[in-house]
Amino acid sequence: MNKTILITGSSTGIGRATALKFQKEGWNVIATMRSLEKEEELNTLKNVLVNQLDVQDLGSIEKSVKEGIEKFGKIDALLNNAGYGLMGTFESASREAVARQFDVNVFGLFDVTKALLPHFRENKQGVIINISSIGGRMTFPLMPLYHATKFAVEGFSESLHYELQPLGIKVKIVEPGGVATDFGGRSLDYQHNENLTAYNDFVTTTMAGFGKAFDADTMSTPELIADVIYTATTDNSETLRYRAGEDAKQLLKARDTMKDDEFIGMMKKNLNI
pTM above 0.90? Predict the structure, then answer.
């Protein structure tokens, strides 16, 4: 029997590339996304079930899990991929924006994981892969809330690993660096109130620094990240963290070996701030 993976956030980017990767490798795929209206490829592929799932909607989570099990008999792996970045000065962020950032990136991940755990416990096996980021181990300016959610995913995943390992359930964390996806478009929410004039010079300088420091040609493709996810899912190891992309490996190695002031100084220099 083919193994089955449920993926959140499958409409674009890493989620879509991963759905295609697993389908190509012979897996059954439950490819979920908030809106099904524009999907024209995944729903034509063999052994792919495309379902509507919004991580902020418990009903849609439970429905997708139930329908996936009904169609394929069993779910073997979960990829928690859905998420977005809130960028801008912290003081500019509304309470509602803060809540949504955590609802999607953290509480939504919690809810999808909890929906699968009874099934994994019953089968005495399963793999949970949580998409974190280099932003779960280090930070960039103007992204305090995004980083807070990814640091939370890291801590949650590492701690959850202890209690699920004796039950035969593995927890894996994938930490991509820069990825050539639309994360900077539909998956990025930028909020800065220019009436908070004390921040304006810093914001302008920092955004210019981002533009110079991050070149799409040097970023990883979604397909490369999907390959790392496939390895994490299938290598049957107890490895917890997987760094995905050369920039991720280099930056996280620097973060591991440098003192705080040294690393932050390097980041400021690279961003020219």
Answer: yes
